[in-house]
Amino acid sequence: MSGAGDFSEDSALKECQDFMCEVIEKAGDIVRRGIDAVKKVETKTSVFDLVTEYDGEVEDFLVAEIHRKYPDHKIIAEEKHAKEALTDDPTGVMSGAGDFCEDSVLKECQDFMCEVIEKAGDIVRRGIDAVKKVETKTSVFDLVTEYDGEVEDFLVAEIHRKYPDHKIIAEEKHAKEALTDDPTWIIDPIDGTTSFVHGYPLVAISVALAFQKRLVLGVVSAPIQRELYCARRGHGATMNGQKIHTTSTTSLIDSLVGDEPSLASRDKYRNEILVRTYGLTSRVSGIRAVGSAVLGLVYVARGILDVYQVEGIYPWDLAAGAIIVQEAGGVISHPDGSPYDIMNGSIVVAANEELHKQILAFNQEFSGKVLELRDK
Q1: Do domains 103-243 and 252-366 have the same CATH topology?
Q2: What's residue 214's pLDDT?
Q3: 108 annotated among ligand-binding-site residues
Q4: 191 is in an annotated binding site
Q5: Residues 6+ apart with CB under 8 A from 264
Q6: pLDDT at 127 over 90
Q7: Which residues bind Mg(2+) (predicted)?
């Protein structure tokens, strides 16, 4: 237990909301007073990173009001409280990111990306049956084609045109970018490249948006099936504009489970994946290998899979699907049960809390076991 008391109760959050709506309106008076005034301008990290006396005045006012109302709450703020660490305690976060937290801004981002990703789907449809130039990256199981690059280049160019100050993490040319608090688009241009190389139609384009290291938007296109999955934080999930939801299945034995046994090609995960697959054969209704992690996730969101799990892949494989399945009612975590981390390439997803507990317990039961292959 923590000193936060019943802070998780909606009534407590409603009180915080009412309080801050009133306070931030008063803070607006400071901005309105300063907008046309002569200001004392200083640079911080660069000539593009400025601060005025009004920034400090607004922050001082907000901090004083929060401390008066909630003296035990912590604060992270741009000008004078930027080095505070985020803990489990109630924490107010103030930023110069403008109104990016406003839902109208996220809705604009969603509408923009839904339109752009549909256009990117034309590239995949053009390439699915074409002769491709295939190259290997880390191994013969990790492939890339000219279409991966073309899709990524198109998406990045469109994002930079619309949002030039946003950051990008993408599989082919922007993979080493760090996730920061800035608005960041996380892109997998073609998830399921091996399937794409063979003309197998279960491939996807995956784009997520993170802000302050938290997923706020996910858009996934399955271009061959012409399916478009979208989710905006707090607004549920849709497929082709229709609401989707996870299943009500609560027993593992009745579940259709998605797993990726082909990932056992890697020595690090071989035994664990093979043992798990062997165990699942007698514990679930059926097992399906999707070949695209993000499609596995949206299939749970859509209710055609009950559970999906995968390990050792990349953040861009999972990010968009993670928020879509959460907004559809699903539960996600790291395979050991710890909270999902955007930059970690392993995930367990279940339709509901009960199924999530059961699949984690199953994984724990089979963890560390060894599958022996013997002659007859």
Answers
A1: no
A2: 93
A3: no
A4: yes
A5: 270, 273, 274, 277
A6: yes
A7: 171, 188, 190-191, 317
188 is in an annotated binding site: yes
Mean pLDDT, all residues of the chain:
87
Give the residue numbers marked as catalytic. 171, 188, 190-191, 193, 317
CATH superfamily for domain 103-243: Fructose-1,6-Bisphosphatase, subunit A, domain 1 (3.30.540.10)
Establish whether 317 is an annotated binding residue. yes
pLDDT single digits (tens) 76-102: 888 776 666 777 777 666 554 445 556
Q: Where are the domains of the chain?
A: 12-69, 103-243, 252-366
For residue 145, give the 3-state DSSP assignment.
Answer: strand
With a threshold of 0.85, does the pTM exceed it?
A: no
CA–CA separation, 237 and 215 (whole Å) = 14
pLDDT tens per residue, range 331-350: 999 988 999 999 999 999 99
CATH of domain 252-366: 3.40.190.80
Give me the mean pLDDT over the 173-183 stretch. 83
CB within 8 A of 72, min separation 6: which ones?
Answer: 3, 89, 90
* Placement of tokens 């907000």 in the chain: 62
R_g of the chain computed on alpha carbons: 23
Domain 12-69 has CATH 3.60.21.10: no
Kindly report the backbone phi and psi dihedral angles of residue 7, in degrees, each rounded to the nearest multiple of 5, phi listed first.
-60, -25
Q: Is 70 exposed, middle or buried (0-12, 13-18, 19+ CB in 10 A)?
A: middle
